Amino acid sequence: MKTLIKNGTIVTASDTYKADILIEGEKIALIGNDLKEDGAEIIDAEGLVLMPGGIDGHTHLDMPFGGTTTADDFFTGQRAAAFGGTTTHIDFALQQKGGTLLEGVEMWKKKAEGKAVIDYGFHIAVTDPGEAMVREIEKLPAAGITSLKVFQQYKGLFMVDDTTLFQVMQAAKKAGVLVMIHSENGDVTDIVTKQLVAAGKTDVKYHLVAHPREIEAEATGRAIALAGVTGCKLYVVHMTCEDAVLEMKLGRARGYKVMGETCTQYMFKFEDDMRVPGYEGAKWACGPPVRTPKDAEYLWKSLADTTLQFVATDHCSFDFEGGKNGKKPGKELGKAGFHKIPNGIPGIEDRMPVMYHNGVNGGRYDINRFVAITATNPAKVHGLYPKKGTIAVGSDADIVFWDLNKEHTISAKTHHMNVDYNAYEGMKVKGWPVRTILRGKSIVVDGEWKQEKGAGQFIKRHSGEFL
Questions:
Q1: What value, to the nearest 5°, has the Cα angle with vertex 397 and ends 352 and 383?
Q2: Are strands 310-312 and 258-263 parallel, antiparallel or unpaired?
Q3: SS3 letters for 419-442?
Q4: What's the DSSP call for residue 53?
């Protein structure tokens, strides 16, 4: 099957130019001017921008946490991603207590089986440290898993000590595996949380007190120092504040291989949103927590000037009013205390439009930088490039048609995520994906769903680059 896209403007991380694209099967076969191909399906992209499909490097679908499971599974979450212009994501598989890393990966593959509608890979999150786990790291690349995650937070659940962290980094460096890290001092959070609960201070706003910015910065600096000693590549996930990003800048200035990601919510949700009366603020409980408008402006600037390399979602959806009509329990579990709120904010569908409108239209960065932070950089670092993340001959035909003039008001009433609220409710955006193509097939066209369950593919990844 051949498809010829005519008259569009191609935008990559480095170039903007007018050209036609010939797709043969699942790949881009030719890019040029005034292309003709007998028998090809013709799609007219006049007036539209053609960008590589988005890559979300940080998601949590069908994940157990805090006495419940995320609202989106691999069908609803991936379908929502496609409507928002994302064609590939990398989810976090969890090692199970008593199990191996690769067994955790296999468990998550089964969660996706028969449901996947876009392409996906996995990071593996370490939850049961030990010598056997460290030895197993060298086996990950052969399985197409070239990144793992460790936590400096969630004591008694996921948190590892510095001994384990250092050993993981040593083994990862040897195996060519990227170390991803959730940086907050979990010992401090554990102490402060217990003190607050004992004092009866359990309202939503105390979540902020238990996760101060200082402990994010401290843990970030500590992890970077250990990465510097071992020489491993380090990727700090969901950075929230200037304090932590400054630690990363210092590490990069010293020549350490450290990179940073932020997430969409940190540009739009703030501490004051969690301090409102009642329980509404629980919608924005995540770890690390939302910060301040000043921090948000610093994050925008850091994305623009290449200090930060990626914007992901950390999509982790829980209904605000769960446990009703057969729905899974959700944020209401935290009414017993802030420490019981399932942490997470939905956003897999909204990342691309929100970051385009507020970034490009907002004058914070140009459209090429937008492509870099949402598609090309994640592809390069996570071992997907050039198969994914760009529009080039030989690459997968993952292409998003972007209407620069189309306006849309974001709302839970119209989104496709399986969750009862939206972080960007009422936000009016200009610039919208009107067609999403995955490996040569149009899977969303003008708001119509065209994909079959199970058509998404697991992607084995190679060792990625350092940016």
A1: 75
A2: parallel
A3: CCCCCCCCCEEEEEEEEEEECCEE
A4: P
d(CA 234, CA 248): 10
Virtual torsion, Cα 76, 73, 421, 291, nearest 10 deg: -120
Contact of 66 with 340, CB cutoff 8 Å: yes
For residue 360, the SS3 value is helix
Q: 404 Cβ partners below 8 Å, 6+ apart?
A: 48, 49, 430, 431
Q: Which pLDDT value is given to residue 324?
A: 85
Report whether 267 contacts 314 (CB < 8 A). no
Instruction: Check pLDDT > 90 for residue 375.
Output: yes
CA atoms within 13 A on the CB side of 67: 13
Query: From CA 188, how far away is CA 155, in angstroms rounded?
Result: 10
Residue 326 has pLDDT above 90, yes or no: no
Task: Give the confidence band of 66 by pLDDT, cuts at 50, 70, 90.
Answer: confident
Q: pLDDT per residue over 394-446, tens digit each? A: 999 999 999 999 999 999 999 999 999 999 999 999 999 999 999 999 999 99
The length of the chain in residues reads 467
At residue 445, what are phi and psi to the nearest 5 degrees? -135, 115
CA-CA-CA-CA dihedral for 432, 433, 435, 438, to nearest 10: 180
Name the residue type at position 148. Answer: L
Name the H helices within 96-212.
Answer: 101-112, 131-136, 162-175, 186-198, 206-210
pTM: 0.97
Contact indicator for 390, 43 with CB cutoff of 8 Å: no
Q: How far is 118 from 262, CA to CA, in rounded Å?
A: 23
204: nearest Cα among 272, 281, 265:
281
Looking at residue 236, its pLDDT comes to 98
Reduced to 3 states, what is the DSSP secondary structure of residue 115?
Answer: coil
Coil, helix or strand for 315? Answer: strand
Distances (CA, A) of 326 to 65, 135, 282, 321, 329: 18, 42, 21, 12, 9
What pairs with residue 94 in β-bridges? 125
Residue 325's pLDDT is 83
CA atoms within 13 A on the CB side of 332: 10
Give the tokens for residue 23. 């797709």
Domains and their CATH numbers in the chain: 54-361 (3.20.20.140)
- Report the alpha-carbon distance of residue 239 to residue 322 in Å, rounded: 28
